[in-house]
Amino acid sequence: MKKVVILGSTGSVGVNALRVIARHRDAFKVVGLTANTNAELLAGQANSFKPRLLGIGDPSQYARVKSALKTPKRVLKGIEGLIEIASMKEADIVLVAMSGTACIRPLIAAIGAKKRIALANKEAIVSAGPIVMGMARSLGVEIIPVDSEHNSIFQCIRSENKESIKKIFLMGTGGPLKNIARNIFDRLNPSRILAHPIWKMGKKISVDSATMMNKGLEVIEASYLFGMDTKKIEVLLHPEAIIHSMVEFKDGNIMANLFYPDMRFPIFYALNYPERRVSHLPRLDFSKMRNITFDMPNHRKFPALELCYYAARRGGTYPAALNSANEEAVKLYLEGKIRFTRVVDAIKKVLKRHKNTPSPSIGDILNVDRWAKEEVKRLC
Amino acid sequence: MKKVVILGSTGSVGVNALRVIARHRDAFKVVGLTANTNAELLAGQANSFKPRLLGIGDPSQYARVKSALKTPKRVLKGIEGLIEIASMKEADIVLVAMSGTACIRPLIAAIGAKKRIALANKEAIVSAGPIVMGMARSLGVEIIPVDSEHNSIFQCIRSENKESIKKIFLMGTGGPLKNIARNIFDRLNPSRILAHPIWKMGKKISVDSATMMNKGLEVIEASYLFGMDTKKIEVLLHPEAIIHSMVEFKDGNIMANLFYPDMRFPIFYALNYPERRVSHLPRLDFSKMRNITFDMPNHRKFPALELCYYAARRGGTYPAALNSANEEAVKLYLEGKIRFTRVVDAIKKVLKRHKNTPSPSIGDILNVDRWAKEEVKRLC
Q1: What pLDDT score does B195 carry?
Q2: In principle, which of A360, B66, B154, B214 could form an S-S bond with A364, CB 3.0–4.6 Å?
Q3: Which run of H or of E encompasses A139?
């Protein structure tokens, strides 16, 4: 029986993880759950799954969590509370499903406590990839990606010699604006921007899909997770989202991973790794899915992609600056304060003003995080 | 430097293997070559690759091989000669690229001599699968399939626990008659029957593709090679021949293997296994290949498929009887002695008259081979 902590259990990935665990209570025991603000849902999950510890990131929600619990339970609060749960003694695996850079410190705590990591957050790897991966390597901690594309890449190369990889095809649907002219992007209703054709996700990542910043961040994420130069990572569009990524080897063979587009697949895979257990998830039916297509991304229409390759080439704190600027700009867009195309424009300006720190510490990255967010606010 | 024997070097796979080896002379040394009848080509290959031993299956061709050699070389003849070369001491790997059941005894000799096997012949596994695989397992001999579909399956499961496999999707183009009405099959010119849309192959296998017997034999082959019940092997059509096969695991994940449709890929993979070396083969270009399709096989139009599932369910000597009857019927078709649709009809009749021997010996299988071929001649 694997003992599981979920950081960010009220988000889209966290909720799906608990759906998976509910079907497999013989295999998993939830020992810790955390959320940022959603007190009611967190308490409801606790009432059902009975973890030993709960954590709430926003201390002002503490009392609401407490009062919604059916039986009294210890509830920790603030970032220090999340860190304590991330490294709790009895946990075997920590699913990091918080969004944004807020997860960097809990993630590092979990790695420091030598927990196996199921990683659904991409921002921590984008901003602090070399530190996180270096620490995991030196402590022998395995990080199983939960982002569907990276989970697929992980499955394609799990038994292979990393030296024999030639190229990664990082697949994307193209997002909700693939077939819409750029000159009307700013006139679209936010509900159109948030309506992803395949995946139901949180608001932040939905906006990132619309700008294609999400795919760009995934390029950087793949580069750090798999130790590959971004030159060897090519974005390939595949609107049906059946093939979730592919890896080409030096001998010309390509391995691909396919599954019905449902986040429960990579979650289930990561929780069970290295085993493959029987799942009750919907299967691909090729008698109904007779045609799949590929397309190339339009870099002029979606400049976020090139920005990400640029930040990755520069290295140091560039990816952190890019990622934090994006977080803030998306927040402003969702608050109705800036237009859609201003999101990527703002990031571009921040990167122009950024002073790089090569080989940064976590402190440097958290400073850049604050700086980039302030810059976006100032510029917009 | 791997020392390679090629049994059947003048056939389509043999010739492609020598093309691959010619590009990688630093990695491979040819030590033995054999052919059945093509004396001139065999001698020409020997003049270029300088193996220590040559073998010619048809003893009447011995003098022609000898006279076409630039420098004198030992040439063995007949089945005993092929067996000697299959087990020659210095060989590291034996590529079995002969067609038909004639390869059973040389293949068994190579396994007995504990050579790694690159197996391009499917008839030996169809007819004598349990014996061949059982012997390989007990001697710790690795068999790397070269048939493109089985090579793909092998790559999909190489690191996986066999218990976690749920299903194999065995891909096929559908052959040259996929879009042609069955009632005109017998009026087609043999050149139309032999014109495969994707693969250039020998005549026997081209006829097998047209009847879809080839795919049915591959179902039986996969069943023995990977120890899977044929119930778990589904034929899926994919006319572009980009995905060469797929494996579904119990957790719902599907792994697929893709390569540009060229037999040199599986040959190169098998010769290098377990390494992956840099190849100079043509790469898949997704910017040019934007659309791939799937389709279901038409069992009524191509009854050979069901016959193969039937023979596999019966087990024992049924697959051998089916395979040998097919060899003879295809021979009669290619000699212009029977109509195209009679090929599968004849096999069906032979299977009806077949008396099964469960757990057969090699002797039993060779007897069935003779019996089935005689039956076809008698019936046609």
Answers
A1: 86
A2: A360
A3: helix A123-139
Q: Quote the CA–CA distance of B59 and B62 in Å, as a whole number.
A: 5
Which token pair is B270? Answer: 């098998």
Report, as an integer, the average pLDDT of A361-375. Answer: 96
User: How many whole angstroms separate alpha carbon A171 and alpha carbon A168?
Assistant: 9
List of residues 6+ apart from B221 with CB closer than 8 A: B122, B125, B126, B129, B145, B147, B150
What ipTM does this complex have? 0.95
DSSP B73-118: -EEEEHHHHHHHHHT-TT-SEEEE---SGGGHHHHHHHHHTT-EEE
Q: What are phi and psi of A239, to 5 degrees?
A: -60, -25
User: Tokens 């720190």 appear where?
Assistant: A357
Question: Would you list the DSSP string of A206-255?
Answer: HHHHHHTHHHHHHHHHHHHHTT--GGGEEEEE-TT--EEEEEEETTS-EE
Q: Is A258 at the interface with chain B, CB within 8 A?
A: yes
| A295 touching B (Cβ < 8 Å) | yes
> What H or E segment, with its residue span, contains residue B248?
strand B243-249
Domain range list for chain B: 2-145, 150-263+285-314
Is any Cβ of chain A less than 8 angstroms from the Cβ of B292?
A: yes
Instruction: Please report, in angstroms and rounded to a whole number, the separation of the first and last CA atoms in chain A.
Output: 50
Output the six-digit token pair for B150. 């089985």
Q: What is the pLDDT of residues B325-377, one digit of tens each?
A: 999 999 999 999 999 999 999 999 999 999 999 999 999 999 999 999 999 99
* Strand (E) or helix (H) holding B3: strand B2-7
Q: Which fold has domain A2-145?
A: Rossmann fold (3.40.50)
Q: Which of B252, B260, B293 sits opposite A252 (nearest CB)?
A: B260
Judged by CB atoms within 8 Å, which residues 137-166 of A form the interface with B? Answer: 155-156, 158-161, 164
Q: What is the DSSP letter of B170?
A: E
How confident is chain B (380 residues) per 10-residue block, as mean pLDDT? 97 97 97 97 98 98 97 96 98 95 95 98 95 97 97 94 95 95 94 85 92 98 97 97 97 97 97 95 93 96 98 97 97 96 98 97 96 96
Task: Answer for the pair A233, A168: CB distance below 8 angstroms, yes or no.
Answer: yes
Long-range CB contacts (within 8 A, 24+) of B280-289: B280/B23, B281/A251, B281/A252, B282/A252, B283/A248, B283/A252, B284/A248, B284/A254, B284/B242, B284/B258, B284/B259, B284/B260, B286/A169, B286/A236, B286/A294, B286/A296, B287/A296, B289/A294, B289/B240, B289/B242
Return left, alpha or beta for A45; rule: phi > 0 is left, psi -120 to 50 is alpha, else beta.
alpha
Residues 6+ apart with CB under 8 A from B211: B175, B302, B304, B340, B343, B344
Tokens coding B82: 């092929």
The predicted pLDDT at position A67 comes to 97
Q: Which residue of chain A comes nearest to B155, CA vs CA?
A: A255
3-state SS assignment for residue A33: strand
**Mean pLDDT in residue range A196-205:** 85
Q: How many beta-carbon pairs below 8 A join chains A and B?
A: 135
- Cα(A148)–Cα(B315) distance, rounded to whole angstroms? 42
Q: What is the pLDDT of residue A153?
A: 98
Asked whether the predicted pLDDT for residue A341 surpasses 90, the reply is yes
pLDDT tens column, A293-329: 999 999 999 999 999 999 999 999 999 999 999 999 9
Structural tokens at position B175: 């052959």
Element (H, E) at A41: helix A39-49
B299 close to A (CB below 8 A): no
Find, in chain A, the residue whose alpha carbon is nearest to that of B156.
A255
Instruction: Centre a 10 Å sphere on the Cβ of residue B268 and count the other Cβ atoms it contains.
Output: 29
pLDDT single digits (tens) A130-161:
999 999 999 999 999 999 999 999 999 987 89
* pLDDT tens-digit readout, A217-249: 999 999 999 999 999 999 999 999 999 999 999
| Residue A227 confidence (pLDDT) | 95
Contact assessment for residue A47 and residue A70, using Cβ atoms and an 8 Å cutoff: yes
